[in-house]
């Protein structure tokens, strides 16, 4: 008697990656794997499987991509996981990036059918463990045994069956290998997480989060318009608009209320994310606001021809001036939004 156990774990494991194409292949492979428990050697005759992406937001939209087994022969001695891949064509890469929209991702494997054949007679049908793959059909012949597996974890309500991929990991493992390592890439979250009700000074956090999101939306528009029209003067004006909301957020040292606010922001964004203690957190957050203030002041010189001292001046910036300001405020908003995001994950 041969026990036909073939159990597929619910969740993909952490070793997902891009594999460079072989000499006869045109595109790299995007590979996801999940653990298995088997007690016999199997060969995959037929399959219907998909990699399912879900954005880490409130929309619950999914992107299903048909995939293939990385290898057909599964050996009980050496194989502890089963892997599926998809050729990462330029079109598919763009489709995933369009779907992702800079968000974090959840991913799971959907196997509608996995038709396997063993080298010995299967004399006994074995039902897989609860929550994993199940045998939906069984067939016995004189010399060959077959099983058909179905692995669908999508009805499960919790997230234990989905692998979470943070945007930093996606950049490191997909975008950089795919586009080459000659680019410096950052992604700015456009939507910040909900603030837990028990967070201290909830109203202050909500005010900060709202201004960050509004500022990033203005920054996004500035980047898109500059990329399409290359109008550097208009770009600088839009940088001024994008920096204004945080520039006007009270953060001076002369008022106790402002000082208390910056100390609180330093604690939330720096101390709570494990990158600094008090008083260094206070110094860093004040320095960040100084950068925002400086960016606002420089970008304000384009629509004005008179300085603060009422003296007229001539300022005719070029592309490098616009791109410098755009780059500075982009990196500042990347830092402050990611810090805010991480601080919401800390209990």
Topology, pairings included?
Layout (H helix, E strand, L loop, with lengths): L5 E3 L8 E3 L9 E10 L3 E14 L6 E8 L3 E2 L6 E7 L2 H11 L4 E14 L15 E7 L4 E7 L11 E3 L1 H13 L22 H28 L2 H16 L8 H16 L8 H20 L19 H26 L3
Antiparallel strand pairs: 1-3, 2-3, 3-7, 4-5, 4-6, 4-8, 5-7, 8-10, 8-11, 9-10
Description:
There is one protein chain. The chain is built from seven helices and eleven strands. It has helices at 90-100, 167-179, 202-229, 232-247, 256-271, 280-299, 319-344; strands at 6-8, 17-19, 29-38, 42-55, 62-69, 73-74, 81-87, 105-118, 134-140, 145-151, 163-165. Strands 1, 2, 3, 4, 5, 6, 7, 8, 9, 10 and 11 form an eleven-stranded antiparallel beta sheet that branches. Strand 4 (42-55) and strand 5 (62-69) form a beta hairpin. Residues 121-144 have low confidence and may be disordered.
Key traits:
single chain; about 350 residues; alpha+beta; eleven-stranded antiparallel beta sheet; 11 strands; elongated
- Proportion in helices: 25-40%
Q: What class, by secondary structure content?
A: alpha+beta
Amount of beta strand:
15-25%
- Which overall shape is indicated by the principal axes computed on the Cα atoms? elongated
Compute the separation of the termini in Å.
53 Å
Total helices: the number is 7
Mean pLDDT metric: 83
SSE ordering: EEEEEEEHEEEEHHHHHH
Could you describe the largest sheet, including whether it forms a barrel?
11 strands, antiparallel
- Rg (CA only): 27 Å
